[in-house]
Write a structure and sequence with these properties.
The chain is mostly helical and about 100 residues long. It has helices spanning about 5-15, 30-55, 60-70, 75-100. The protein has two domains: about 1-40, no CATH class; about 55-100, no CATH class. The protein is elongated.
Length: about 100
């Protein structure tokens, strides 16, 4: 995001989208969205890894039992899988918030 040697400005100018360097963090209309983008870029792989690990440990016996009882897929997701991974989602959210505020 650096104005003179940043990769984003280089790509935008190479593609012909921008004619001059954009000051992402100095422009009031772009500063907040730029910081949100950088934070998402940093946190998304961690969230993906944590959610994927939690989903690999889903309770197959409860899912099978719900299927035998006639539960539809969205009921299984809502009442079995999401309650199972909600502690992981909460702890990942707390860690991400701490890292963001740090």
């Amino acid at each position: 995001m650096q104005a003179d040697v940043g990769i984003i400005n280089f790509l935008l100018m190479s593609a012909g989208v921008a004619e001059k360097n954009i000051l992402f963090l100095l422009d009031p209309s772009l500063a907040l969205s730029s910081l949100i983008f950088v934070n998402l870029w940093k946190a998304l792989p961690f969230w993906f890894l944590m959610i994927t690990a939690a989903l690999q440990d889903k309770p197959m016996d409860q899912i099978e039992s719900a299927t035998l009882d006639g539960a539809k897929y969205h009921h299984i997701v809502r009442y079995v899988i999401i309650p199972h991974i909600s502690p992981i989602i909460a702890s990942t959210g707390v860690l991400t918030t701490i890292w963001t505020l740090n």
